[in-house]
Amino acid sequence: MSATPALARRLGTRDAVVIGLGSMIGAGVFAAFGPAAQAAGSGLLIGLALAAGVAYCNAVASAQLAAQYPTSGGTYVYGRERLGEWWGFAAGWGFVVGKTASCAAMALTFASYAVGGSLGEQRAAALLAVVALTAVNYRGITRTAALARILVAVSVLALLVVLVAIAASGKTDAGRLSDLPLGTGGVHGIFQAGALLFFAFAGYARIATLGEEVREPARTIPRAIPIALGFTVALYAAVGLAALLAAGPEALAASTTPITTAVRAVDAAWAVPAVRVGATVASLGSLLALIAGLGRTSLAMARHGDLPHTLTAVHPRFAIPHHAELAVGAVVCALVLTTDLRGAIGFSSFGVLVYYAIANASAFTQRAEFRRWPRALNVAGGIACLALVASLPLSSVVAGVIDFAVGLAGRVLVRRRRR
What angle do CA 3, 406, 57 make, to 5 degrees? Predict the structure, then answer.
């Protein structure tokens, strides 16, 4: 590992929780209910519970590992330390590629709610959002945390307005849940919905990825991750149930803005501006935290020679991996101009689920003095991650397999050239 400057520890528990919330309360709640309803109908609620359970297993594994290895890089570092460098590379590659796709999905969700209009106009707005938030992250992690607090507060307030609007309308219909518990897609549909909704929960890892910048990481990270995840699960469950009761699974499945569709379905058009503001702000919050997390993982991979060495540069004033941040921003801009929202969600889920399967395997190997939760959770989490991967749409699985093959083959070639 190259001797490169360390990042500054500036984040406390509250900051870490806020960054985790900002990563999760974003495009997931405002966009993922559409494809999940298409896969499972009202069975998406079971898929949501499945995704939350898998997320919990992964969260405690990440928290336990981050307490032992409080450095940038997340499961890329944990996999290297616990399983070997190839496992670490696979985790890092899955995270970087999957979360880069997530960034594109967040930016496109922001544009679909904030701008509407033609696809070209949406892509232009998404591009501007990526450039602006990359600039914010460039100014330092405390700027990121400060902006995340504002974005999270506005996002949560908007979702509470949605819940009040639907509950007070008097036009919800429990009959729209008639196909529970298996929904319209059966067991496979529920697993596919769970895999797609997992996309919405994966932001808690951002806290672990920023481990090198957290004060007292052995205490702060294991507290912050469960708090952020628990709040998000409760909020998502309430919003998912309300959306189904308001619009039904068919309407949600056909919409790229499912929360707006749910509000309109109960004649609560007065709440549509709040939904648009909430979706816009939440997507920006997720994008902000994702760019920060990707920069830190890219930094860790570059330190070990798995990405170009120039990405190890740390800004002397702002104490952030500025070359990595700029590289991430550039790649996300390219994806925003070439991808679509639903494809990005599935592709992201593939890479991130592989990442967390490796996190669970890494946590399973930790010795007793570093363990905070039972190994059974690691086993359950690892198996569930692989099951959700297998249930993703075929196009996402094929694209994910090809991507990993390219990444692993590229590493083989680079190592041979170095030798």
Answer: 70
The residues with which 11 forms a beta bridge, in sequence order, are: 214
pLDDT digits over 43-82, tens only? 889 999 999 999 889 988 988 898 888 877 778 889 999 9
DSSP 8-class letter at 214: B
- Helices H / strands E in the chain, number of each: 18, 0
CA distance readout (Å), 303 to 57, 71, 333: 29, 12, 25
Residue 213 has pLDDT above 80, yes or no: no
- Nearest residue to 99 (alpha-carbon basis) of 189, 8, 229, 204: 204
Distance of CA 322 to the CA centre of its chain: 22
| CB-based contact 95:74 (threshold 8 Å) | yes
Maximum mean pLDDT: which of 19-28, 198-207, 212-221, 262-271: 262-271
pLDDT of 303 strictly over 80: yes
216-230 residue pLDDT tens:
777 787 888 888 888
Q: Are 244 and 39 in contact (CB under 8 A)?
A: no
Q: What is the mean pLDDT of the chain?
A: 84
* Separation in Å, CA 170 to CA 158, 165, 173, 188: 20, 9, 9, 33
Identify whether the C-beta of residue 200 lies closer than 8 Å to the C-beta of residue 206. no
Outline where DSSP puts E strands in 33-141.
none
Alpha helices in 170-204 (DSSP H): 186-201
Nearest to 346 by CA among 223, 192, 238, 212: 192
3-state secondary structure of 11: strand
